Amino acid sequence: MKAVQVMLDESLLERLDSDPEVHRTGRSAVLRRAAEEYLARRRREAVTEGYRRAYGENGGLGEEFAGWEEQGEWPPE
Questions:
Q1: Which strand (E) or helix (H) includes residue 29?
Q2: What pLDDT score does 38 carry?
Q3: Is CB count within 10 Å lower at the N or C end of the chain?
Q4: Are 21 and 10 in contact (CB under 8 A)?
Q5: Is the dihedral of CA 27, 28, 34, 37 positive or negative?
Q6: DSSP string for residues in 46-73
C-alpha cells in the first residue's frame, strides 16, 4: 500500500471519526472501502450509459431482430 495525503474539512473529519466502523476498522480501511465503492458505482454508471447509447430509443437491436425482444426470458435481477 502507499500512503497518500487527503484533505478533509474539519466537520467531515469529525463525523467520520465519530462513526463506530471507523473506531473498529480504522479511518484508512473505511476510506479505502469508500473509494472502492465509488469506483464500482462509476463503472456501473459507465456500462449503463454505454448500453443506453447502444440500445436506447434510437439504437435498439435493428430491423433484423425486430420482435425478438418478447421471445426471450430475462434472468431475475
A1: helix 27-55
A2: 98
A3: C
A4: no
A5: negative
A6: HHHHHHHHHHSTTTSS-GGGTTGGGTS-
